[in-house]
């Protein structure tokens, strides 16, 4: 399935995190083996605690996540985790099988607005379509990797730009995400807004 977005990503993008936390995220994109390598960093203060998360995510040409290397720091210390995926829904965490993630095709970092780019590119939904998109969810405060059930529903374009209704029932959270023509989040209500 081909993406509904412009085929070219910018070299870099940035988000200001507002609402749930105060902070900033910067990401760099580069092509690799027909897919992309995405390097990024988020620093934030949330509930009075500061943290920083660095990440490198590799996605295949079909936008399935193939690996994610995540390093976090906070007053509690540093942590690292490495996720690898076969593109068919089977994962390893730090080299060990992770059957609780079976069926997930995307990684979702709690610290990142960028990772909401991955499933919308992979799915290429048309307006009126929806899909369940469970993800390997990496918490910002530590190396825990959980299964996150979520759903994206494509809504009618507004001002020529795509939008999606997003829901993560475990957090009792839903919102409408606005995207640019490259499929990068412009507005994530209560979480982040695009800065560059």
TrEMBL record:
It holds the Pfam family Glycolipid_bind. InterPro entries: Glycolipid-bd_prot_put (IPR009467). It comes from the Bacteria. This is Glycolipid-binding domain-containing protein. It comes from Sphaerisporangium rufum.
């Amino acid at each position: 399935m081909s993406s509904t977005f412009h085929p070219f990503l910018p070299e870099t993008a940035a988000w200001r995190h507002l609402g749930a936390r105060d902070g900033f995220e910067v990401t760099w994109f580069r092509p690799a083996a027909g897919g992309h390598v995405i390097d990024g960093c988020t620093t934030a203060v949330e509930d009075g605690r500061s943290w920083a998360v660095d990440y490198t995510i590799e996605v295949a040409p079909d936008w399935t996540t193939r690996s994610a290397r995540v390093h976090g720091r906070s007053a509690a210390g540093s942590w690292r985790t490495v996720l690898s995926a076969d593109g068919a829904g089977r994962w390893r965490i730090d080299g060990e099988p992770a059957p609780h993630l079976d069926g997930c095709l995307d990684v979702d970092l709690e610290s990142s607005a960028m990772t909401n780019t991955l499933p919308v590119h992979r799915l290429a939904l048309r307006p009126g379509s929806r899909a369940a998109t469970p993800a390997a969810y990496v918490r910002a405060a530590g190396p825990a990797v959980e299964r996150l059930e979520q759903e994206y529903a494509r809504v009618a374009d507004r001002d020529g730009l795509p939008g999606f209704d997003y829901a993560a029932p475990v957090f009792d959270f839903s919102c409408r995400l606005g995207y640019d023509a490259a499929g990068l989040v412009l507005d994530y209500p209560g979480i982040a807004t695009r800065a560059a």
